[in-house]
Design goal:
alpha+beta, Butyryl-Coa Dehydrogenase, subunit A, domain 1, Butyryl-CoA Dehydrogenase, subunit A, domain 2, Butyryl-CoA Dehydrogenase, subunit A, domain 3, two-stranded antiparallel sheet, 12 helices, 9 strands, 54% helix
């Protein structure tokens, strides 16, 4: 079994690493803490010019057709740099939702815009706190209009379109495509732990929308979308965890206490070793998820849940131990470790909590054993 990325994907990764290294993303993230949550247009334009927004979108719909391999390595580099852009909500959620269940007309109308960066999108599922489940969806879709509220919605305050989970007049779960700049839509930014990964409340008051058509049960399509997004998000979290480890190791080598580098002390060595183990476990699960995405593995739900669980755990421990390794300076406002800690906390609940994905992992294992 080959777990190496293709030469094309490696080239995309290396190109992305060089580009993002020159963008000073951490100062952009810090700026958002001061209340300026507006995305950096120059950074977004550079990402669009590199073709990342259309990486996994087929050429027939204006994309580059590079597939999931390219999207995975892009996600890892974005996670490493903490780039404050609406990439995940657009590429992992909106574009994937349209490719999974959109009609040909809907795909032709919106995928080229998402691929070119002319529009951004998101997926609206949650309606406040609580577990992800069909019963939690109460937003109504009747007579071609949406009525109700969704929150939190990733990048919901700035996205142009959203795919929304709702209930039709007969109480069945459906997915609808809505223009967020149209009539009947009111948006309000929410305060979150990571302002560089913004969330919003969206109120729909008879907002015009179009049904998405799926060949499977609409709720199963929602779960399929979450599985795909979980794997891509896992790569982003692996990138963030790697950045935390690199930052902690670098500081442990330069900081001296009692005449020695702090990295020479066993307590610090053990902390960083624990981070390394968690990171490598997450990376291997993410690679397995990438293999599932590219091969159409029928066990996609299993590998997605494994990747999601291990990546949440890795980024959480890496961001925490990065602060601890930095000691007294690590807790200060001026230090950068908090930026990764904030992002880890936000991403840990962005697609459902750790408990949700653990339950999904156990369920997938039980189904495989029963087959």
């Amino acid at each position: 079994m080959n777990f190496e990325f293709s030469e094309e994907a490696v080239e995309v990764r290396d190109q992305g690493r060089r580009f993002l290294a020159g963008q000073a993303c951490l100062p952009m993230v810090r700026k958002s803490l001061d209340g300026d949550g507006i995305r950096n247009e120059a950074l977004w334009k550079g990402i669009v010019d590199l073709g990342w927004t259309g990486a996994a979108i087929p050429e027939a719909y204006g994309g580059y057709g590079m597939g999931y391999e390219a999207l995975c390595v892009i996600a890892e580099e974005l996670g490493y740099s903490l780039a404050p852009v609406p990439f995940a909500s657009t590429a992992f959620l909106a574009a994937e939702a349209l490719m999974l269940a959109g009609s040909e007309e809907q795909k032709q109308a919106w995928l080229p815009k998402l691929a070119s960066g002319a529009a951004t999108g998101t997926f609206a599922l949650s309606e406040g706190p609580g577990a992800i489940a069909p019963g939690a969806v109460q937003l109504r879709f009747e007579d071609g209009k949406l009525t109700g509220t969704k929150w939190p919605v990733p990048d919901g305050a700035t996205a142009d379109i959203a795919v929304v989970a709702a209930r039709d007049g007969d109480g069945r779960i459906v997915q609808a495509l809505v223009d967020l700049r149209g009539a009947g839509v009111t948006r309000q930014p929410l305060d979150t732990i990571d302002p560089s990964r913004p969330q919003a409340r969206i109120d729909f008051d008879a907002a015009p929308a179009e049904l998405l058509q799926s060949n499977e049960d609409p709720w199963d399509t929602v779960l399929s979308l979450l599985d795909r997004a979980a794997i891509l998000t896992a790569f982003e979290e692996v990138g963030g965890a790697q950045a935390c480890l690199d930052m902690a190791v670098a500081y442990a080598k330069e900081r001296n206490a009692f005449g020695r580098q702090i990295g020479s002390y066993q307590a610090i060595k053990h902390k960083l070793a624990d981070v390394f183990v968690a990171l490598e476990l997450a990376r291997s699960n993410a690679y397995m998820g990438a293999l599932g995405l590219t091969s159409g593995d029928r066990d996609l739900a299993l590998v997605a849940a494994a990747a999601r669980v291990s990546s949440i755990q890795a980024f959480t421990v890496a961001s925490s131990e990065n602060i601890q390794t930095h000691g007294g300076i690590g807790f200060t406002w001026e230090a950068d470790p908090q930026l990764y800690y904030r992002r880890a906390g936000a991403m840990a609940v962005g697609l459902g909590t750790l408990a949700f994905w653990k339950d999904r992992l156990v369920g997938a294992l039980e189904r495989r054993e029963a087959a």
